[in-house]
Please model this.
Amino acid sequence: MFRLSGEERDRLRTAAGLQGQALGRFVAEAALDRADGIRRRFARLAVPPRELLAVQIELREVARQVRAVGVNVNQVAAVANSEGVPPANATAVLAFCGRVLGSASAALDRVDRLAAALGDEASE
Model:
């Protein structure tokens, strides 16, 4: 199920022997104790880890969209500078910019709510 180096196995065998337990029982109990501790710690969180991950994914997507806005704006500016008039898709690019700004604003609001919840948790 998992691999150990010889040194790791010896360390665990020694500790198990000190407890009067077989190696397998010692490792299982240690792992379960650790799992219980992690579960208790996350149960106390005001913000579930899944929600933090969702915000992280959302922020990465917003960052990707902001980069796309930069590319589109540069293309519009290049055409406008070379031809003296904005390209036909300039309105669509501006609308895309507005949508991305809305997404960024919503993502930042969500981060603010999570930060407030985490701040409340830290003060408890």
